[in-house]
Amino acid sequence: MASSSRTSFVLASRASKLAQIQTNIVRDGLETTFPTLSFSTSFMTTEGDKNQSQALYLLGGKALWTKELEVALKEDVVDMLIHSLKDVPTTLPHGCEIGAILERENPVDSLVVKQGLPYRTLEDLPDGSVVGTSSVRRVAQLRRSFPGLVFLDVRGNLNTRLAKLDAPDGPYTALILAKAGLVRLGMGDRITADLAAPILFHAVSQGALAIEIRAYDQEARELCKALTHQETQWKCLAERALLRELEGGCSVPVGVSTSLSQIDKSAGKLTRATLEITGCVTSLDGSVHVQDTLSQEVESIQGAEELGKNLATKLMANGAKVILDDITRDRRKRASEAETAE
Ligand SMILES: NCc1[nH]cc(CCC(=O)O)c1CC(=O)O
């Protein structure tokens, strides 16, 4: 690096406990890799943290968790934004880019049962049990296998949600949460079962952390390169290309499952692998489910993204378009009803 290079960088994220833990994970990684540089942290509240009353589904999956942070990034107040990649919109604002994608935790969803209850799996729950989740993806897919369960929105950060679950007079028998978040918070011991495909396909990029930087910040870009886990990057970018093509955000019922095999590396760099990606789109009531798989040898990020995009085209042709158009209509209708009600 040139002698004029910066020697200190500010990492920023939301102020939730999970976001802070994730930011500290990244800071530790940067400090270990670049011991001569210094890294500090800054935590902010975002729109998604403030608006706890409106259903996520109606908020429409816009840049709820990222916008305020991106303003600070662009104004040079901070240098690196640490996100759960799943919360990062598939199209970034002009002037921002994803600098790094770190090694993914297990991407599955997990079941957490209310303290003191004897159940372990979704099969164990009596009909009529209330399962808390604010994700339409989880509800739509699980309604298919568990028509007897009642799904109810639950908002707030992970600690708040768990407190709502355990409240003696609370409505919830169980919650469904991303395993990665629970594990990072040190609450993996609350998990009674993992829910994986084909029962529940996880969210695009679930379990992976990302660093967002200014697009022209060469120094930050170099640091980020060292932290990127290429296998995760190829998988997640394929998943994001799929979601982008489906024109969805985190609030559409899109699930995925992705694997890499026959991995070739040269000088430590990933050069070729077989990428298999399964994607699904499910109607909100669970009555229609479109699912497809593509598998292909890819040699670059662009190849991985192409495969994700091709899968989207296939899903759209096979019925996903009807489901997503219905959802868009329903959301517009409900949003305008909510406005008139105020
Ligand atoms: N906006 C919610 C959110 N964003 C990222 C995670 C979990 C961690 C991850 O997927 O990396 C969660 C919590 C959840 O879905 O249970």
TrEMBL record:
Its EC number is 2.5.1.61. GO terms for cellular component: cytoplasm. Residues 235-316 form the Porphobilinogen deaminase C-terminal domain. GO terms for biological process: heme biosynthetic process. It catalyses: 4 porphobilinogen + H2O = hydroxymethylbilane + 4 NH4(+). It comes from the Eukaryota. Keywords: Heme biosynthesis, Porphyrin biosynthesis, Transferase. It is an enzyme of class 2 (transferase). Its cofactor is dipyrromethane. InterPro entries: HemC, Porphobilin_deaminase_cofac_BS, Porphobilin_deaminase_N, Porphobilinogen_deaminase_C, Porphobilinogen_deaminase_C_sf. Pathway: Porphyrin-containing compound metabolism; protoporphyrin-IX biosynthesis; coproporphyrinogen-III from 5-aminolevulinate: step 2/4. GO terms for molecular function: hydroxymethylbilane synthase activity. Residues 10-221 form the Porphobilinogen deaminase N-terminal domain. Tetrapolymerization of the monopyrrole PBG into the hydroxymethylbilane pre-uroporphyrinogen in several discrete steps. NCBIfam families: hemC (TIGR00212). Belongs to the HMBS family. This is Porphobilinogen deaminase.
